[in-house]
């Protein structure tokens, strides 16, 4: 008996010794995320049973533990192939947010794994999260969006153009620009080029052929500015971009700056015939877009309105118009008085002491805490436009974190807003403009997602151009800094649950920042310091193509700012609002966008697959998108010289042998499709990349 016991003890010691001598676990094989292949169902309801999975190298670890809400559970090895073991654990959710990470054990070695990968210690900030009951619209996940600033896209109906001297805006007459190709003026807000919804209708076939799946419109509602972020009437599309059927009245006389005398303008924007015709045109536009598989997202400006607004009526547009109540500026007895915060309550009529957003009296801040009627009405607006007969597919929310007079109220408002919108249209998307940490609003009960500055636009811009997104600074230390790029991406992506990340608006340019193509010239400045023409000088289309490849292969909803695909340049606002160059487009860039969008749509892993870090170096990125049945590798060489790389593609889940086929290859000479293949040997490929090159490779067994 003693001999038998002694043998057992010796055997256990040998096994323990062997285990402790095992090489460190293969950290590159470790992987999990919250896509559907590693969290099932990926958008669970409260109290659902979910399966959480984790991948390791085959026969490489002793044990994987799921650390869920602070408790540890031993995961079962449920599947193996030649390269990987897959562990799983089923657990029933509650109704609150769930948080978890993994603990991997191999002999005496213990590793921890969260959204940052293998780490030495756990920071709860980077745990994986599941938000029971939270879903984002399936159509928006990975969708290719297109942002249209209507006045500058296409003039389809000259009869509705804003006329010179039609009214005054910020104390000067508005101006109709006759030269479509003219650079925007430095004071551009009162300059109108005539783009309208009929123009968009005329170009829907172009957008469909490009591969666009959703249009995001800058504001469309009645407003005196070309940007329309100072809403005058939330109930109606502006007839100047809609339809004018009753066009009577005189223009302002020379030298006259009081808009109560702007008869032509008053007739255009207050007559029900014009307003209803404009709404009807919007209905037609949405129907035509939907028939082409294109969704429509509206811009919601609910933090503030405009001084022209019928609730305020500082310009006295509605004072004598039929069918309108007196505005709060006009009368202290106005039904809208509580909609705004007035400092001097004895100054009527014509009380100018209201609170303006950031002190701008053209942008009266809406006082929701002081008016339940206002709160209820905006909830009505939120529902109205995503419901029949308008059927918009979502809202983009302007300066959403600024709304209200406290953070507590802000969160209360957006919770109610979400409930109203989703009850009216469960498939409507709610995405917000916000700079900085978004986590507090992305807990499943407020916004669906955000315009992705911190986890896309800024890291991509710094890495590829070294430029700040307004072209206000150049940082050579950030140009090509792959460590900074990945660090920013990992940190900021942790604010998203997967449903939010998959619909995040990933832009290279928009109406508030310089055009990305201009950033490639490394010129620091604006039109006021350099002149608009400098925005076009020294640009690098090869770097721009790298950025577009990155955009179209990253997690989220890649969003093209109108004209970027045609080669439009521009410094920051207002130069970024140049017109679309119809008839003068860069046709090669358009073809490139059409092809990379098609590649994205044809390869599901680029739309919904896991994102893998593969390799990086100065001015070089290698990452992958994968599903169990398909894998793509993306390589970005932003150096001004060629590089030779040996890349481990097996980490994406490919087999050790096979080939990688180039779906698209871009460099300084342009781009090519599908003409190169690379052998996969022992799970690796060898590849030489020319300077400023981007490649998308797909694995074929």
Number of helices: 15
**Range of strand content:** 15-25%
Cα radius of gyration in angstroms? 28 Å
The count of β-strands is: 33
Largest sheet properties: 8 strands, parallel
Low-confidence stretches: 7-22
Strands side by side in the biggest sheet:
22-21-20-19-16-11-24-23
Beginning-to-end CA distance, first to last residue: 56 Å
General shape: globular
Keywords:
globular; 7-stranded antiparallel beta sheet; 23% helix; 701 residues
Concise structural overview:
The chain is α+β, with helices and mostly antiparallel strands and 701 residues long.
Describe the structure.
The structure is a single chain. With 701 residues, the chain is α+β, with helices and mostly antiparallel strands. Helices cover 23% and strands 23% of the residues. It contains 15 helices and 33 strands. The strands form 8 sheets. Strands 22-21-20-19-16-11-24-23 form an 8-stranded parallel sheet. Strands 25, 26, 27, 29, 30, 31 and 33 form a 7-stranded antiparallel sheet that branches. Strands 3, 4, 7, 8, 9 and 10 form a 6-stranded antiparallel sheet that branches. Helix 8 packs antiparallel against helix 9, helix 8 runs antiparallel to helix 13 and helix 13 packs parallel to helix 14. The chain is globular and about 85 Å long. About 2% of the residues have low confidence.
């Amino acid at each position: 008996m003693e001999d038998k016991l002694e043998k057992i003890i010796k055997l256990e010691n040998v096994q323990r010794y062997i285990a402790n001598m095992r090489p460190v676990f293969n950290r590159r094989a470790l992987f999990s995320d919250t896509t559907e292949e590693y969290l099932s169902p990926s958008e669970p309801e409260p109290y659902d049973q979910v399966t959480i999975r984790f991948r390791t190298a085959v026969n490489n670890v002793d044990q994987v533990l799921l650390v869920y809400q602070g408790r540890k559970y031993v995961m079962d090895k449920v599947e193996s192939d030649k390269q990987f073991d897959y562990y799983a654990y089923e657990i029933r959710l509650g109704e609150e947010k769930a948080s978890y990470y993994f603990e991997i054990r191999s002999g005496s070695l213990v590793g921890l794994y969260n959204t940052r990968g293998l780490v030495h210690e756990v920071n709860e900030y980077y745990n994986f999260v599941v938000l029971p009951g939270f879903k984002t619209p399936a159509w928006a996940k990975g969708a290719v969006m297109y942002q249209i600033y209507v006045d500058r896209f296409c003039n389809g109906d000259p009869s509705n153009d804003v006329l010179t001297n039609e009214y005054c805006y910020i104390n000067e007459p508005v101006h109709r620009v006759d030269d479509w190709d003219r650079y925007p003026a430095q004071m551009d807000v009162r300059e109108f080029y005539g783009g309208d919804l009929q123009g968009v209708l005329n170009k829907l076939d172009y957008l469909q052929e490009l591969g666009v799946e959703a249009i995001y419109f800058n504001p469309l509602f009645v407003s005196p500015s070309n940007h329309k972020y100072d809403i005058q009437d939330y109930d109606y599309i502006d007839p100047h971009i809609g339809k004018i059927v009753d066009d009577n009245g005189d223009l302002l006389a020379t030298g006259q700056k009081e808009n109560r005398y702007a008869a032509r303008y008053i007739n255009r924007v207050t007559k029900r015939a014009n307003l209803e015709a404009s709404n009807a045109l919007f209905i037609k536009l949405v129907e035509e877009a939907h028939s082409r598989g294109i969704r429509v997202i509206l811009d919601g400006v609910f933090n503030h309105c405009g001084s022209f607004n019928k609730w305020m009526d500082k310009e006295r547009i509605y004072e004598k118009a039929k069918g309108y109540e007196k505005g709060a500026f006009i009368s202290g007895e106005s039904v809208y008085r509580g909609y705004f915060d007035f400092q001097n309550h004895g100054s009527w009529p014509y009380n100018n002491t209201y609170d303006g957003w950031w002190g701008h009296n053209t942008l009266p801040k809406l006082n929701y805490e002081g008016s339940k009627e206002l709160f209820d009405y905006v909830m009505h607006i939120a529902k109205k436009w995503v419901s029949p007969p308008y059927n918009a597919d979502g809202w983009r929310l302007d300066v959403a974190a600024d709304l209200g007079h406290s953070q507590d109220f802000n969160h209360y408002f957006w919770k109610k807003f979400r409930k109203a919108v989703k009850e009216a249209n469960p498939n409507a998307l709610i995405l917000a403009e916000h700079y900085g940490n978004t986590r507090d609003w992305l807990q499943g009960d407020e916004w669906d997602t955000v315009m992705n500055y911190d986890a896309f636009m800024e890291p991509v811009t710094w890495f590829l151009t070294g430029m700040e997104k307004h072209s206000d600074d150049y940082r050579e230390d950030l140009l090509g800094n792959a460590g900074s790029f990945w660090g920013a991406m990992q940190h900021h992506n942790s604010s998203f649950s997967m449903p939010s990340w998959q619909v995040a608006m990933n832009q290279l340019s928009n109406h508030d920042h310089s055009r990305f193509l201009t950033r490639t010239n490394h010129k620091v400045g604006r039109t006021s310091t350099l002149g608009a023409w400098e925005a076009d000088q020294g640009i690098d289309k090869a770097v721009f193509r790298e950025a577009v490849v990155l955009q179209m292969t990253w997690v989220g909803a890649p969003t093209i700012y109108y004209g970027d695909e045609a080669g439009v340049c521009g410094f920051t606002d207002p130069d970024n609002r140049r017109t679309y160059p119809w008839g003068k487009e860069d046709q090669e860039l358009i073809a490139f966008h059409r092809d990379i969008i098609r590649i994205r749509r044809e390869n599901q892993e680029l739309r919904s697959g896991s994102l893998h870090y593969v390799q990086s170096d100065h001015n070089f990125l290698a990452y992958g998108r994968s599903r169990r049945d398909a894998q793509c590798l993306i390589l970005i060489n932003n150096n001004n010289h060629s590089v030779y790389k040996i890349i481990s593609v097996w980490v994406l889940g490919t087999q050790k042998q096979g080939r990688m086929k180039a779906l698209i290859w871009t460099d300084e000479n342009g781009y090519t499709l599908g003409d190169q293949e690379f052998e996969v040997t022992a799970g690796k490929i060898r590849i030489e990349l020319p300077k400023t090159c981007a490649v998308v490779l797909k694995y074929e067994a």
